[in-house]
């Protein structure tokens, strides 16, 4: 023991109250003889995970919690936890006991022995590793995700989806500003952040089955994975959020036309009334979709936040519509023949306006 803090373990948690104490006890066992600390990064879990960690922290100062309010996301939680330690090495491990904490000393030893090494990854898919009791469905999904990742990853990682690894904190701080921190795929994000992939080693382990709490890997997480891949390949040209916002905007146009034709053509309402209802329906639909998809990590919840958000979104979009029409009319005046190009320029200006202001005023406040 050197007396200096040498290792931090970051544990992202969401509803893992019943696993916290066991994990800390197991870390204590595995890391005996070292100076270490554990940082739980909890997204304000309703089950009181953060309180459970604080209870332990009062008797053991090595145990800390970062409680994030109004935020969600595994990757961003890991990044914030890793940036919160003074230790030179930091590991990320799941809070549900599925990762094998007894691997940590070996991971640390590799990094200490070889100064050129930057990262050690726990792998389920190399000789000696395994996925334990996974069903066929999960195995094939994981294999598909791994294959897709090869398109952005320029390194031969056997388990790029792994959520279990150890990295030098100096390296992490260097790449942190380059991370997209979307969704679950923190390791992939770190590996592809720099032009040159990180120098890594892999150690095998067997993924355990979960005994308490439940998995948060759902369809939205799968979608976020695709988004993260998009971000790495094209995000430089068109930011992910803007692409999603625009795609949802296009859906909104479809919804608007559908409601308009239903009311005006089919039900015989006046054009003005039909147009007003269609606009409100489309704006509300877009607000809700953006709230669950584009801004999932800053999602507005509860009636008050939703109503406030909806009002500000409608205000922003009204100004956006005025800008759209103004720009299109101006360009059309300048070049009479270019009506389609003028209209498209108007739509683009409106979209950028709506995106920029709603990210600030609708989803930027909590
Ligand atoms: N702070 C925070 N915020 N933590 C979260 C969030 C979130 O939004 N979502 C999940 N977590 C925590 C969980 O509480 C758990 O400690 C850990 O992240 C992993 O989440 P699980 O829901 O248990 O994921 P999994 O077991 O299905 O997925 C595992 O395998 C994947 C590969 O197949 C994880 O290790 C993933 O990282 C890995 O990619
Ligand atoms: Mn899990």
From TrEMBL:
Keywords: Glycosyltransferase, Membrane, Transferase, Transmembrane, Transmembrane helix
GtrA/DPMS transmembrane domain: residues covered: 245-363
Transmembrane region(s): 242-265, 271-289, 310-331, 337-357
Localization (cell): Membrane
CDD domains listed in its UniProt record: DPM1_like
Membrane topology: Multi-pass membrane protein
Pfam families, per the entry: Glycos_transf_2, GtrA_DPMS_TM
Coiled coil ranges: none
Gene3D superfamilies: Spore Coat Polysaccharide Biosynthesis Protein SpsA, Chain A
Xref: InterPro entries: DPM1-like, Glyco_trans_2-like, GtrA_DPMS_TM, Nucleotide-diphossugar_trans
Glycosyltransferase 2-like domain mapped to chain residues: 9-174
Family: Belongs to the glycosyltransferase 2 family.
Name of the protein this chain belongs to: Glycosyltransferase family 2 protein
């Amino acid at each position: 023991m050197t007396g200096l803090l040498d290792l931090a373990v970051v544990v992202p948690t969401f509803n893992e109250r019943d696993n916290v104490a066991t994990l800390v006890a197991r870390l204590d066992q595995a890391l005996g003889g070292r100076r270490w600390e554990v940082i739980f990064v909890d997204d304000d879990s309703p089950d009181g995970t953060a309180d459970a960690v604080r209870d332990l922290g009062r008797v053991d100062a090595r145990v800390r919690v970062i409680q994030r309010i109004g935020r969600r996301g595994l990757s961003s939680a890991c990044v914030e936890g890793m940036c919160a330690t003074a230790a030179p090495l930091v590991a990320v491990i799941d809070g549900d006991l599925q990762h094998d904490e007894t691997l940590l000393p070996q991971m640390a030893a590799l990094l200490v022995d070889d100064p050129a090494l930057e990262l050690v990854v726990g792998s389920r898919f190399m000789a000696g590793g395994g996925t334990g009791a996974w069903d066929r469905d999960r195995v094939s999904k994981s294999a598909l995700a791994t294959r897709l990742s090869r398109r952005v990853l320029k390194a031969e990682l056997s388990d790029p989806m792994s959520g279990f690894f150890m990295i030098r904190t100096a390296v992490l701080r260097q790449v942190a500003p380059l991370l997209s921190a979307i969704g679950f795929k923190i390791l992939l994000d770190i590996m592809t952040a720099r032009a040159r992939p990180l120098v890594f080693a892999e150690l095998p382990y067997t993924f355990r089955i979960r005994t308490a709490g439940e998995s948060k890997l759902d369809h939205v997480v799968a979608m976020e994975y695709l988004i993260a891949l998009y971000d790495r390949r094209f995000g430089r040209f068109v930011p992910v959020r803007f692409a999603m916002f625009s795609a949802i905007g296009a859906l909104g146009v479809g919804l608007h036309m559908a409601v308009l034709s239903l009311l005006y053509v089919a039900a015989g309402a006046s054009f003005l009334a039909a147009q007003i209802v269609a606009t409100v329906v489309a704006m509300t639909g877009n607000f809700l979709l953006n709230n669950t998809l584009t801004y999932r990590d800053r999602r507005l919840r509860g009636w008050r936040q939703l109503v406030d958000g909806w009002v500000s979104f409608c205000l922003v979009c009204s100004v956006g519509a005025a800008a759209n029409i103004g720009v299109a009319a101006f360009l059309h005046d300048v070049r009479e023949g270019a009506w389609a190009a003028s209209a498209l320029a108007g739509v683009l200006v409106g979209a950028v306006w709506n995106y920029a202001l709603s990210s600030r005023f609708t989803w930027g406040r909590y």
